[in-house]
Design brief:
With 274 residues, this protein is mainly α. The chain is 65% helix and 3% strand. The protein is flat, with a radius of gyration of 23 Å. The N and C termini lie far apart (63 Å).
Length: 274
């Protein structure tokens, strides 16, 4: 039985998991989705004013609605990053001392400018994070691999292994949920044996994670070795001579998606002067 009559807390990670759908976003060419996501993520760092922030958030909400995915699934995919955003906002609020002082207590000095910067920098990261989440939720790992292979193919002329790099990226996405399940099983087993993973002092909890990390590392090496043996047994050989079952083709909807993305960037630039 579980110690104290409580079941151990499972560790779940939804990053990189594809959700099937029939929306217009799902039907886009994966190369279009990758380029659009990169543009959205890069443009998020140029948001400097509140009106730009509101426009960016409204656009990303509209884009999320266009995927026709449950809001809960989208929120679950970015939940592990919420703590990072909170920490980023807290650091900005404490480090920025410009503007009118609102709270002053010893070394603690919070200003209106610090709060503005904390909210702006944290919320604009949501645009980038949700854009990446939409890309992963609406695109299969195979489509991502083919898209990266096609986008990186010019690097072959420079002697870089574009296909191998794309395959490594695909395997990374496939291993994320697998390793998350492995971590969950290992943590459950350690908790049943009396390890204080979810309670106790911070030092005790960190110390109890060492066996989990070692076991997870051993499991990762075992999976990697098994994958390498499978590829060798199937005489796998990457390269430009390999064909694709579903060749990638740009369509009118891809041109429309690119145009909407460029229009968003143009409007974001115009709003910087408002």
């Amino acid at each position: 039985s579980y110690k104290g009559g409580q079941k151990p807390m499972a560790f779940r990670l939804n990053i990189g998991q594809y959700l099937a759908g029939t929306s217009a976003i799902h039907k886009l060419d994966p190369r279009t989705k990758i380029l659009a996501a990169l543009v959205l993520m890069i443009s998020a760092f140029f948001i400097q004013t509140p009106i730009q922030l509101v426009f960016g958030l409204l656009y990303i909400v509209a884009l999320s609605r266009a995927t026709r995915l449950p809001a809960g699934k989208l929120l679950d995919s970015i939940k592990p990053l919420i703590a990072m955003l909170f920490a980023l906002g807290l650091i900005n609020m404490l480090m920025v001392h410009r503007g009118e002082t609102l709270i002053s207590w010893g070394v603690l000095n919070i200003t209106d400018e610090g709060i503005r910067v904390a909210l702006l920098y944290s919320l604009r990261m949501i645009v980038a994070i949700v854009a990446a989440a939409i890309l992963l939720l609406t695109t299969t790992p195979t489509q991502l691999t083919d898209a990266f292979d096609a986008l990186l193919s010019p690097l072959n002329k420079l002697g870089l292994p574009a296909h191998e790099l794309a395959m490594v990226f695909s395997l990374m996405l496939r291993f994320i949920p697998l390793l998350a399940e492995e971590a969950s099983s290992i943590m459950d087993a350690q908790t049943i044996r009396g390890a204080s993973i979810h309670k106790g002092h911070v030092h005790t909890r960190i110390k109890s994670l060492i066996p989990v990390i070692i076991a997870l590392l051993a499991s990762s090496l075992r999976h990697a070795n098994g994958l390498a043996r499978s590829l060798d047994a199937r005489c796998y050989e990457g390269g430009s001579t390999r064909s694709h079952w579903h060749p990638l083709r740009y369509k009118k909807r891809d041109a429309l998606a690119c145009g909407i993305t460029l229009l968003y960037c143009f409007m974001l630039g115009i709003l910087a002067f408002v």
